[in-house]
Amino acid sequence: MTSTTVAAAGNLKRAGVETGMRDLLWFLFPLCAILIYRPALRAISYTVAHDSGPLVILAMAAAIGIPLTGLALVSRSTPAAFAGYLTIVIPPLVTATGGLIHVAAQGGYWTALAISVPTVLFGGGLALSISPGGVLVRAHRITAIALAIFALAHLLNHLFALDSLAAHKAVQDALRVIYRNAMVEPLLVAALVAQAVSGVALTWRGRYRRGFLNHAQAASGLFITVFLCSHVIATLVSGRALAHIETDFLYASGGRAGLLHSPGSVTLIPYYFLASVAFFTHAGIALRRTLLRKRSPHANRVGAGVFALGVAVSVLILAALCGVGGLSRGV
Asked: Which of 131, 165, 255, 271 supports an S-S bond with 91, CB 3.0-4.6 Å?
């Protein structure tokens, strides 16, 4: 081996080490984001306690905006994209971790359940990523249609709380006749699991994807997956199975005081708002892609319209959860 070859090999090795170190450094970004996220949540409580008016809105915007900084990374290298994804899912990750710890502390099979939920969703997703892509896509699309109808009805139901809690409950009771049916509810939970597992698998299969919208769809899908993990644990397990309480709008809002004034509930402000935005983002990009395949000239406008609608609906739902409308009037 000549000296030139040895030098070239050495340079390649050093370049590989430098690239590996640079890839690891990307993951300092979500670590720094979560360290800032906690004080941002406390800032919401501080501004509310001191009746700071516009500063409350600013503090809420800051807490919501911190996870979204991960979008700056998603179009870079693959490690940077996953660091960006991890940053974006901070709100449901924080809430899910607390919920899983609470359930695990009950001992026995509750501990096994708390361990199995993230294991099945993410471990199962990674395992399924080696299966034929066409099967995964079909499974994801079929469950997506049913779940989109449920999620849309569920989100729009919350808008009735702006009028009154009685109006919200009337719509909720009508919907529960369907989705809490003894046959429908298990199928709905199974569809949630199938959607989450197939989504994780597709995200991993497409980890070398290009284009901001492709990454935005993956990030929003992962957010929804972690959110569902947290939300199902909070409602079906912590709420209904363990505490035996009604998981209605008052449960979601932390009581009649609303998210802003209920102890510990400010963590749910970015959690709920971004979950709703993530749903509309994921659906909007998927609809845009479908229309592009059909060569529709309206694909971009429809995708943008769904996203804009999602932001508007999310703002209104957050307002209701924070005390605007029915909560503030106590009706």
From this structure: 271
Comparing CA positions, the residue from 136, 293, 142 lying closest to residue 205 is: 136
Cα(124)–Cα(288) distance, integer angstroms: 28
CA distances from 78 to 34, 75, 218, 304 (A): 21, 8, 13, 26
Helices 54-68, 78-88: crossing angle, 10 deg rounding: 150
What CA–CA distance (Å, rounded) separates 291 from 103?
A: 43
Q: Are 220 and 199 in contact (CB under 8 A)?
A: no
- CA quadruple 63, 121, 74, 101: dihedral sign: positive
Q: Which class is 89-329 in CATH? A: mainly alpha
pTM for the model stands at 0.88
CB neighbours of 52 closer than 8 A, spacing ≥ 6? Answer: none
The 10s digit of each residue's pLDDT in 199-256 is 888 777 776 677 888 888 888 988 998 898 888 888 888 878 787 888 888 888 888 8
C-beta separation of 196 from 121 below 8 A:
yes
Please state the separation of Cα 257 from the chain's center in Å.
25
